[in-house]
Write a structure and sequence with these properties.
This protein has helices at residues 17-31, 36-45, 52-66, 145-150; strands at residues 75-87, 96-106, 118-129, 132-139. By secondary structure, it is α+β, with helices and mostly antiparallel strands. Strands 1-2-3-4 form a 4-stranded antiparallel sheet. Helix 1 runs antiparallel to helix 2 and helix 2 (36-45) packs antiparallel against helix 3 (52-66).
């Protein structure tokens, strides 16, 4: 980690190009667990958990990681979490981002609904400038895989 003796004013002060690459790899692994705790631990590890941008990220991400669950229905991820590159189509128009997709079931639902496989996705945008992370946030408006292929962006 960077030397914290200097005054830290923003998330970018905590990163070098190497740490940014490492952070992205570790954040990808944390997000694929579909659990907010590994994400929070990673933000703590990199000393960025207390920045407002990180607090906002965790708040928005919490819905992405829990909004698909139904209480007392045995909701669980079915299969592996996959990723795909995408583009933001709203506030950060055309900026690259990563979409996390997974399928889930409500195992405790009544038959036959306990066999229905649903899908869920969410986007994460890493604001990286000159190889330095400035912010990580949830993106709510992005092109899906088919749109990316149709526009020949993949």
């Amino acid at each position: 980690m960077k030397d914290f003796k200097q005054s830290i004013k923003s998330i970018s002060d905590c990163f070098t190009p190497e740490l940014t690459k490492q952070f992205k790899v570790e954040m990808d692994a944390a997000l694929k667990k579909i659990d907010i705790n590994p994400v929070k631990e990673l933000l703590e590890k990199y000393h960025i958990a207390n920045f407002q941008d990180s607090i906002d990220f965790v708040e928005a991400l919490d819905y992405c990681l829990h909004g698909w669950k139904k209480e007392h229905m045995g909701s669980k991820v079915y299969g592996e979490v996959t990723t795909s590159d995408s583009k933001c189509i709203a506030c950060e128009h055309s900026k690259g981002m990563v979409v996390y997709e997974f399928e889930y079931i409500h195992a405790a639902a009544a038959i036959p609904m306990n066999r229905v496989v649903y899908s869920w996705d969410f986007g994460v945008l890493f604001d990286i400038r000159k190889e330095i992370l400035h912010e990580v946030r949830v993106c709510n408006a992005f092109l899906n895989r088919k749109e990316m292929q149709r526009l020949k962006l993949v």
